[in-house]
């Protein structure tokens, strides 16, 4: 029982982290209709900068540096690359981000090499015992901080001027522009926020017990894409719900892997994608995505 | 339009203008000079337009669909590039400052705001949030508050609904919100794109009064309208656009009195020629359509209740009623898109209410859509070919290998498509991309596609919505020609009463989902219930009623 409980708590905490990554992905999609495939690489970039600088700067300043790097990179992608595309339709731009992801991912893997870089976070490798099982402290910290960010963000999205402008632009960009909303700023802000969220999530995702910043880290972070899609690409609440679902699925599939060994070893790594497949069969727009309605 | 004729008309009206009214000297707020606009580098949408809006005045722009009215507004509001358009030459200046090349948001900050066609309110946002989005263009908090109060003053209805999501408002309320939202930017020039589109007559009157009110507060207005009577009523001056040029300009009064404007834009839509009784004998099996005791409910709202009537084979039958009367619901039940809660629809011996959509299609029931549903990137011919899908016998493998019998079938279809294109007046446009055609022509492509299925029952959903009087008259004659040639039954759904009166043999009138009259046009026109449903009582009661009617029918 205590094993089940510890898995449940771990699953929820890592679920919030998945949710943070998915949230950034959804924000960019809502603001620009671009499916941003560089998002996992951006999370890795942020975490990498933290890993490289925490010894000289200390963890918190390193985190600021990591966030700045990810935000700056996203800003450059938006302003230098996507805005200058010859055909600025969302499909073309999304495909461009696949190319950018390959470039950025390759460079990061080259820099990381075969090391496993630690992130120097203050929670270290401490654990909390639940009966005869245990939960890493980082996971609890991740759950609390991610939940706080999500609640804060939901409030900003709902009540602030920026949030209202962003929701308007997401629903009908042309009408929003006609009402004086500066679409460029909305887009830049979305890319920036997404970069910051990705860095925080990347750090929590990769630190203990995640195995540190390695050249395989981007693959692991990719599990957050299904979270966004399961939730419905255009739903911020859905991103969080999708993140929790993916977190729980992965944790339980890993925790009970002996019981489900008939599905093959390491099935938990594929679990987010299997879950996404099943959800899309039943609900093609994701759990909370908006259907495109047509009046006939 | 012949160039010399245009020139003549211009001098005629300009001559009258100088003789009669000397307009008081006022500063020019908006000046459009020699504006030329193209889309995709090819189509010339505007071809040298000159126009001015004096400070504090209301100016109207009239014209058919495709004349370039919306393009003109897009050029002013800076949204042209979002539609793939470009100003090739000429310029737009506001208060002496050029607006060319500015971002739409900067143009709003310069004091020019556009209410887009089709309202385009933010459906996911509340009324209050809709207003708030637009207020962000104003920096000072006190100005924002003042603007909000003005809007709620002007539209008390919006104040009542401030917490409701925009998408839940009725059409009339959405138009109020769209105008109110634009006013939140504290504009000095308001651009209105077809504010009366799709509204009941008494709501149109209300919107007209509101525009006058707004103008009295010192805001200049440029209004683009299909409803020329409304536009000329509120505007001081008007311009008529024809194929991207200004064909006529003058004071509203002169234009309203000019016989030419009267015929083509104000037209008591010309009564159509009487229906000929002689039916063309065809090999088609034309059957009776019988609707028995039909009820459809959405949640707690009755969209149709206990409606029964029959469509005599081989005639044109009109179903009319105000917005939200249940007309579109009816057509959607006939085509199997919605299912009925109660009652039946018989088509000859078959029961349509027991069939799926595609089965109904294969019975020879064909329809057009109220909102155009064409493949924009495909040519007119390809769109029409789509209509012949149910008649093709060749399978997908044989087609892939382009077997000789497939090619023969294709050729046959193609020649029939050409015939039908000719019949609906698209003969010259058959290889054009459907999406690039003006709206009126797209409506014809829809009609052609429906005909290509060789229907024996044709359902037309608001075939002249958003068309001017000349275009409607043309559509009416095409519908009659088609009906005569094919000998089929045609059901026309319309809210425009005069349009169907000369054309239909029988008319059914719906209101609140109930059938209130069914008979010949002559009988229906004199029915007291119909007069009440259409014209309402006193004006204020009328607006309330119209809004409530819209609401109940959502």
Can you walk me through this structure?
The complex is a heterodimer of chains A (296) and B (554). By secondary structure, chain A is an all-alpha fold. Chain A has one domain (2-218). Chain A has helices at residues 2-32, 39-57, 59-81, 90-112, 137-159, 161-171, 173-178, 183-206, 217-221, 224-231, 236-255, 267-282, and strands spanning 127-130, 133-136. Chain A contains twelve helices and two strands; from the N terminus they run ααααββαααααααα. The model of chain A has no long low-confidence stretch (mean pLDDT 90). Chain B has 554 residues and is of the alpha/beta class. In chain B, the strands form four sheets. Chain B has a six-stranded mixed β-sheet, with helices on both faces. In chain B, β14 (342-347) and β15 (350-351) form a beta hairpin. In chain B, α4 (127-135) runs parallel beside α7 and α8 (201-216) runs parallel beside α9 (228-234). Classes of the chains: A mainly alpha (296), B alpha/beta (554).
Helix content of chain B: 40-55%
Uncertain parts of chain B: 1-23, 267-282, 536-541
**What topology, given as strand order, has the largest sheet of chain B?**
6-7-8-3-9-10
The largest interface is:
A-B, 21 and 36 residues
Q: Low-confidence spans of chain A: pLDDT under 50, at least 5 residues?
A: none
Strand fraction of chain B equals 15-25%
Total number of β-strand segments of chain A? Answer: 2
CATH class of the largest domain in chain B: Alpha Beta
The CATH architecture of the largest domain in chain B comes to 3-Layer(aba) Sandwich
Number of domains of chain B: 3
* Helix and strand sequence of chain A: HHHHEEHHHHHHHH
Largest sheet of chain A: 2 strands, antiparallel
What fold name stands as the CATH topology of the largest domain in chain B?
A: Rossmann fold
Q: Any key phrases for this structure?
A:
heterodimer; A: 296 residues; two-stranded antiparallel sheet; 71% helix; B: 554 residues; alpha/beta; Rossmann fold; 6-stranded mixed sheet; 22 helices; 20 strands; disordered N terminus
